[in-house]
Design a protein that fits this description.
The chain has one helix spanning 123-130, and strands at 14-16, 31-34, 44-55, 58-63, 70-75, 89-95, 104-109, 112-118, 135-145, 149-160, 163-167, 171-177, 180-194, 209-216, 224-225. It has 240 residues and is mostly beta strands. A hairpin with an 8-residue loop joins strand 6 (89-95) and strand 7.
């Protein structure tokens, strides 16, 4: 498992080192967006059979049928294989935050949580679905600054059955929670605050991002390291 990361290709940041470490490269945003625009900025839930269509990182999930069906477009920055979930009876919860158009997505079946896409602000909800505080913010690993913000890059800590792991964006960890295998991918992990005398017109909300994907497995897989595809911006939320 990687414990350090290469220089992040964030075009809007001028880097400064923290203990000699370069900021870890963030993956692109993991997003779950409802198909109906009138559902913007509100939490949405639906239950029923799950159908998964699409391929690669861009998928469409439909839960239920008829007027009560929920259709969600998902971009899986963690490259989660959701096709195996098609046909399950699930409850889907889309969790909103502020004025972001994308949401976090939780899928549950009769055994509990099946899949979580945390777009950056739903850590408490994921831990609640897991039944314990399994995931938390890690320590600062690097800092950076631009004309407006001071950035603090962190890890994500997971308390697995065999101990704690400290993971950085791009890390893929196959872990066991209460005897159940999971695939965990860290997408982004940073906090920020405005620099002295920074101008923030039209930006009333500060936001920190801890984004990840967590997929329940039948059998354990292999650890890996993902790199953000060329041409895609790193995950972010709120104003830049």
């Amino acid at each position: 498992m990687r414990l350090t990361a290469p220089l992040a290709a964030l075009p809007f940041v001028l880097f400064t080192a923290c203990g000699g470490a370069a900021p870890p490269e963030q993956l692109e945003a993991a997003t779950a967006t409802p198909a109906l625009t009138q559902e913007e900025f509100t939490d949405v839930s639906a239950s029923g059979a799950l159908q998964v269509s699409g391929e690669g990182q861009d998928l469409t999930l439909t839960v239920g049928e008829g007027e009560g069906a929920l259709t969600v477009d998902v971009h899986s920055a963690g490259r989660s294989d959701l096709s195996a979930l098609s046909g399950l009876n699930v409850t889907a919860d889309l969790l909103s935050w502020g004025f972001e158009s994308s949401r976090s997505l939780l899928l549950r079946d009769e055994a509990g949580l099946v899949y979580a896409l945390d777009a950056g602000w739903s850590l408490d909800a994921v831990n609640e679905a897991l039944g314990a505080e399994r995931l938390r913010w890690g320590d600062e690993v690097a800092t950076a600054k631009d004309a407006t913000w001071s950035w603090s890059y962190t890890s994500l800590i997971v308390s697995a059955d065999d101990g704690e792991l400290s993971l950085l964006p791009g890390d893929v960890a196959n872990i066991t929670l209460d005897g159940v295998p999971w695939r965990l991918v860290v997408v982004a992990a940073y906090a920020r605050e405005p620099r002295p005398n920074a101008e923030l017109p039209g930006c009333p909300v500060l936001d920190d991002v801890l984004s990840f994907e967590l997929l329940r497995l039948e059998t354990s897989g292999e650890d890996d390291l993902l790199i953000r595809p060329e041409g895609l911006d790193p995950a972010s939320a709120g104003c830049l």
